[in-house]
Amino acid sequence: MNIITNTLPAAIGAAFGGGFFAGLINAGGKTFALIVSPKLFGEFKGRWHASDDSVPGAEDYADGLANTNAMAAAGSELAKAVRASVIEGFDDWYIPARDELELIYRNLKPTDYENSASFRDGENPSSVPMGRHYTEELPGQTGVDEFRAGGNQALDPVWHWSSTQYGPSSSYAWGQHFYGGYQTNFHKSYEGRARAVRRLPI
Known about the structure:
The chain is α+β, with helices and mostly antiparallel strands. It has one domain (43-195). 16% of the residues lie in helices and 26% in strands. It has helices spanning 39-42, 64-73, 77-83, 98-108, and strands at 15-16, 19-27, 30-36, 43-47, 127-128, 159-165, 172-177, 183-187, 191-195, 197-201. The strands form 3 sheets. Strands 1, 2, 3, 5 and 10 form a 5-stranded antiparallel sheet that branches. A 3-stranded antiparallel sheet has the order 6-7-8.
């Protein structure tokens, strides 16, 4: 189903498409509206994968849907649980890719903590507009009350899984801390959070 640009919500965090509008992402040369699931139904916990084996097809930095499908095909219980979920009548939820997860942090940051501004934290060539390196002050805490720390939709200030495998080592996958935006890799066997998303083409 296609939507036209002027049907997009006017504000980040607005109810939209079974969840909440988180911004725009470019994947495979196409632009999508990224939608964060309601926390009550869309927050998952688990290991990225039980095996250190490489998961072909889960290396994309922007296409979380393709990554999650590859994870599920390789036996990831976390990915299978997310892909099997039906939330607000939609069944196309997935684990966000690294750049999709960064966009959620940038636009819906739950805390007022200083950001990690080391190395390349925050650089996002897939977001629309392109994301730039964090400073300690920017991005600031979201102005969307429901997504601020303590709000009923807020992403908890802990690290969350992305669906993007860490390229240099098949034993790791990318994640992002939601208290200060630090982007790093975690061993696939670690227990972590994942917040389901879906997307709509524009």
